[in-house]
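BUG: 3D viewer hangs when loading the predicted structure for this chain

Environment: internal workstation, default settings.
Expected: structure renders.
Actual: progress bar stalls at 90%.

Input used:
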Amino acid sequence: MAVTDDAILRVREMIVTGELKPGDRLPREADLAERLGLSRNSLREAVKALSLVRVLDVRQGDGTYVSSLRADDLLGALSFVLELHRGQESTLEVLQVRRILEPAATAMAAQRVGPEEVASLRALCDTAESAHSLEELVAHDLEFHQAIARCSGNAYLAQLLETMAGPQARTRIWHGIAEGGAVERTVSEHRAIVDALANRQTELARSWSTVHVAGVEQWLVGLS
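Structure tokens produced before the viewer hung:
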């Protein structure tokens, strides 16, 4: 194991065990390095790596602190990585993950969704149907899927799906959908999902969500 990797594991262990809690200030570099049996250079590299993924917060002139460790903060690093890898192959892999997670979130939402949320989802379908630009379609699509994920009641799942729903990739996909004349079909699938949610038909909601994401995935495969 590389020395820096070992240093990362040591610091991570302190956080996982609760020795260091969110908001805690790390001991001085020299003291922590001696305590962990690490060189100051390897500890410095570990801190740099953990700050990049937002586990640690380095404040110049003040010290290094454990971040809030909130899911939305930590997953922000994943969002950055995904935006760096937005080629066709990477986008397809992200869709494959969405095809696993979104139907599960939709099924969970069917058990919890309320009348106001259903009304909001129907309104999003209406506005998408009358959208005048690609930007509007992308915005409505993002809000539609994010709203369903939030209805799942699982904050981690909702945040993960939101992180994977990069606007750049969706813009490209919606551009293809619009050019192929499939906007009406896509909105129709959205409405079918909402109907299943409104009627608390868990498995039907899951199925429509699977069909919806799989259809986009098939379209992308057809481009290769």
